């Protein structure tokens, strides 16, 4: 398995690769991961994730300074490194999580050796523009080049997946590669603790990278618009390049004393943050799935999310939360207020609906699906509760 980001990096792709690797190891597979060094020692080392031992091949990497933490393996050495590792490990299958550097090298060398290849896309080039320094008038050209590069790597794979149907459709349109599987990243729902006791305070939670595409500024404005009698507290968990700007914005909006920016936290602290919250807010417009939203659902939280990309797969209007118009702080505030004023019995209905939705995204189902793909076996698409229009009943959706 290989990708351009992996633990200790904190993002959806890294977390998915970590849980997939440890879950496969728990099922008895020998798992090797190729990843940037990320300030860790280079070379092959045994690392432990979710109690499972994984061999991680850390490649010498450089910091990408436009980004607040990202490192990258050296592109001019990736073919040599990929060939060396593949020849040492002799894998039955290569699964790459991004095509930019490591996935490109692994897929190329695996193809030469006739090794089965599976590729999963977690990348939207549009989200990376802020860290490239490319002038605006050249950005559409750059996006086209990025998707063309993605096609060159993913076309080598016998099977290609994305985390949701919308993400798969977006990828197919951008690359021209068809028959992309929609396979949930999945989470271990048993790790999260729902709390149905009445809340003593109104606490809104956001979890994720503190970056521009997450549109946390919209959330801050929405909290400022909420009625004073709700006495709302806002907790923002995560780090990123916009942290200082958003802290200053919270003070300017007059909600600095009610807003907590925790930065990065441990898994245990994160689970406690979910459990103690009243509602989860996800204003992002660029989620290919949103592991944080799934974690919130597994914690029994109602969710208010932007009606954008893949979030409607997880948030079903007036069932387990509400969708709001992306970028509209007033609409977000209105939907948050609606949740915070629900009578306890109606709130419990929303919370139970969240648990029902996330049940379809259990990591065990994801592991089984990828095992089938690794072996070249047929994959059966299970029925998953989809987004539904207001007033309609949920129906089946094609999600592997």
Automatic annotation (TrEMBL):
One of its GO terms (molecular function) is glycosyltransferase activity. Keywords: Glycosyltransferase, Transferase. InterPro entries: Glyco_trans_1, Glyco_trans_4-like_N, Glycosyltransferase_grp1. It comes from the Bacteria. Residues 10-190 form the Glycosyltransferase subfamily 4-like N-terminal domain. Residues 378-400 are annotated as: Disordered. GO terms for biological process: carbohydrate derivative biosynthetic process. It holds the Pfam family Glyco_transf_4. Residues 200-349 form the Glycosyl transferase family domain. This is D-inositol 3-phosphate glycosyltransferase.
């Amino acid at each position: 398995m290989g990708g351009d980001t992996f633990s200790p990096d904190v993002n959806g792709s890294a977390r998915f690769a970590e849980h997939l690797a440890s879950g496969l190891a728990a099922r008895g597979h020998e798992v090797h991961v190729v990843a940037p060094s990320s300030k860790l020692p280079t070379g092959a080392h045994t690392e432990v994730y979710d109690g499972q031992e994984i061999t991680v091949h850390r490649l010498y990497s450089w910091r990408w300074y436009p980004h607040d933490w990202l490192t990258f393996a050296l592109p001019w050495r990736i073919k040599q490194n990929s060939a060396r590792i593949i020849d040492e490990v002799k894998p039955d299958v290569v699964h790459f999580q991004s095509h930019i550097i490591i996935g490109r090298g692994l897929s190329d060398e695996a193809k030469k050796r006739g090794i089965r290849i599976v590729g999963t896309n977690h990348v939207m080039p549009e989200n990376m523009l802020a860290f490239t320094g490319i002038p605006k008038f050249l950005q559409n050209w750059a996006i086209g080049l990025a998707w063309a590069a993605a096609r060159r790597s993913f076309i080598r794979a016998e099977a290609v997946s994305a985390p949701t149907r919308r993400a798969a459709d977006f990828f197919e349109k951008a690359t021209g590669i068809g028959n992309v599987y929609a396979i949930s990243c999945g989470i271990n729902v048993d790790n999260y603790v729902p709390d149905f006791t009445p809340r003593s305070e109104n606490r809104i939670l956001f979890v994720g990278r503190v970056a521009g595409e997450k549109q946390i500024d919209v959330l801050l404005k929405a909290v400022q618009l909420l009625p004073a009698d709700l006495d709302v507290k806002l907790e923002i968990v995560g780090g990123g390049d916009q942290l200082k700007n958003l802290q200053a914005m919270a003070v300017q909006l007059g909600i600095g004393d009610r807003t907590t920016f925790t930065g990065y936290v441990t898994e245990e602290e994160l689970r406690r943050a979910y459990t103690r919250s009243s509602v989860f807010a996800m204003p992002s417009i660029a989620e290919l799935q949103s592991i944080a939203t799934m974690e919130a659902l597994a914690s029994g939280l109602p969710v208010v999310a932007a009606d954008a990309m893949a979030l409607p797969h997880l948030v079903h209007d007036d069932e387990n939360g509400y969708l709001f118009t992306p970028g509209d702080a007033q609409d977000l505030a209105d939907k948050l207020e609606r949740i915070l004023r629900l009578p306890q019995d109606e709130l419990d209905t929303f919370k139970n609906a969240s648990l029902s939705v996330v049940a379809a995204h259990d990591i065990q189902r994801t592991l089984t699906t990828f095992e089938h793909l690794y072996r070249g076996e047929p994959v059966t698409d299970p029925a998953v509760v989809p987004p539904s229009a207001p007033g309609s009943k949920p129906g089946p959706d094609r999600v592997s």
